[in-house]
Design goal:
heterodimer, A: about 400 residues, alpha/beta, two-stranded antiparallel sheet, about 10% strand, globular, B: about 400 residues, TIM Barrel, two-stranded antiparallel ribbon, about 45% helix
Chain lengths: ~400, ~400
Amino acid sequence: MSALDRALTIEDLKAMARRRVPRQFFDYIDSGAYTEGTYRANEDDFKKITFRQRVAVNLENRNLSSTLLGRPVSLPLAIAPVGSTGMTDADGEIKAARAAEKFGIPFTLSTMAICSIEDVAENTTKPFWFQLYVMKDRAYIERLIDRAKAAKCSALVLTMDLQILGQRHKDIRNGLTAPPKFTPKFVAEMMIKPGWGLRMLGTNRRTFRNIAGHVSDAVNLASLSEWTRTQFDLTLNWKDIAWIKKRFGGPVIVKGILDPEDAQLAIDNGADAIVVSNHGGRQLDGAPSTIRALPAIVDVVGHKTEVLMDGGIRSGQDLLKALALGAKGALVGRIMAFGLGAGGEAGVARALEIVRKETDTSMALMGERDIRNIGLHNIYSNDLERRQGY
Amino acid sequence: MTTLGNALTIGDLKTRARRRVPRQFFDYSESGSWTEQTFRANESDFADVLFRQRVATDLRHRSLASTMVGQQVSLPLAAGPAAICGLQIANGEIHAARACQKFGIPFTLSTMSICSIEQVAEAVDAPFWFQVYTLRDKPFMERLIDRAKAAKCSALVLTMDLQILGQRHADIRNGMKAPPRMTPGFLMELAGKPGWSLGMLGAKSRTFGNVVGHAQDVSDLSSLSTWIAEQFDLGLSWTEIAWVKKRFQGPVIVKGILDAEDARQAVAHGADAIVVSNHGGRQLDGAPSSIRVLREIVEAVGAKTEVLMDGGIRSGQDLLKALALGAKGAFIGRPVLYGLGAGGEAGVTRALQIIHDEMDVTLALLGERDIRNVGPHNIYTNELERIN
């Protein structure tokens, strides 16, 4: 039994990743903004929801497949866009995309990926999703959308909650940059994580390849926050959805919605779906967890659009809770990253398999045979209180 | 100051201060009374207030400037009165006053400061605020107010919640006396904190500069402790506010209000503003945190007066939560002390910068551009329960 086969939980994969991935890149993933209160709440709040256990129901021929944006998926799940995945493991985005494709779920490539749109398209056969930030250099963004179209990406994921960067202290303390600076500390890290180092030597993909060589001005890519600070467009507004949709000519999923009013605005302005998200607790520290914010948003727009969610999902049970509270599907970031850090493509496959199996068994214990049937009737209690204002 | 530059949080400054400040002085401020329940609740209760995340709003041209008691401030924040800043680091009050002035926020000098009103006034250009206790020695109080006026202090902060001292065990265990006694234990501490000790050799003052030589029968260190023990006026009543205002002829901010009834009384008796405060958890242990009672006090008197607050603010998010719940501004005590202990004026500047930068980003993530617009609509939920 390989080490990966012995991993029974996402937590196991996280521990393996921690041992194999250089500290600054592991910390980049295992971080939230400021006090990381929202980062922790995203995970912890799932514990405040309990399931109804039902018995004596025919549990044969169970179905976990569903659709997202009208396309079939083997599980109502997608890989979330995660920056610098190609630093968690060499060619990380390609590996994760292949694992997702074999598993039968969409993979979302981040603008701030190491492997470019073209790199991933070359190494996969099925369409993937592309995540877009709106930057001041409009011509660059237009070219990026064109490239996603050319690569036959089946949806754009438009991030609305990162026009300014929430501070993640670990990144500053670690002096995080991509490509990494060869400080004595980093070299020492690589020596104790030789597998990672050797794999990185075996690829030429070590910078932000959606950006390098594609922007009009020479830009210092060494510091992510510096780049963010100067390029991210503070004037991003709802009207931007329209021109992006027009340029792309396909579905646009709006990500970063945590308030019912914003959900309504997103739909009114043409979003084809929304992702309830606080950016994995990496932006507004002090925001509620996404699982907590989800029901109020489903109430307002659930009948008009697909409401997806991300943040804190670490198990099949978490996924089922999200679905029961009205999400059509969920995105997972750290599940992918921990799997990748633990074992490359096979690690991501293992992570997805863990979630699939947990989902399947737990669904059965709830007396359900078809994941598309999961709903509020499967919830015993939800102690997470809705917004009550001041 | 590369190491100060590495401080990313108020907590980092606290860690640095703990290494540099003699233990009894660090412990003096890092204490609450009795079980320290209220001291801890002040900080931890902020986690029960959650923000609304809003997106797709124009985030350019953000402003954090505001006013407090009608005075322009670069941030709705003031350094609150904290005793013995000048024992966290030599000339501490001067360091803090300078940092605040340069940052554009008010500094409040405590009656129980080490550097006197006059020493601080000499060292800064901008007016600062002065905190007074109600003491039995009325002529001394009158002279104190006159001195504040002469130094052009732009507001008085009248402390109402310290007529009797809450017990802080650390001070007793440390043999903390004001002023400190040269016990062998203390001398060992000094040896381990040479930076602090050498700094103190050149300090402008090493005792209570507002009191020694100014109060009757207080001419030296030994008579000082006796005087302090006897001075706080148990007969304090609301009418005090009126005579202090009359003497000072300027705004009087009443500090130590934790109850809506008291808030109404303070306003009725002439307070120009109030500070919702439990004295940093150092007085009534078992009192609710300030952030918990803030809303009900704002509802009681917010229409008639400025409601400020202090207690537990350790970040820009904490300050924003206070503003969203109705405070016009807030005082910070310990973050300034941590900054002083960590690095004097530069340390205080770092503390203020940390809070400023956190506020700026968080304000944007709330979808707001102007701090004066922050209010209840920015709150997702406030789980702190009201009085019942």
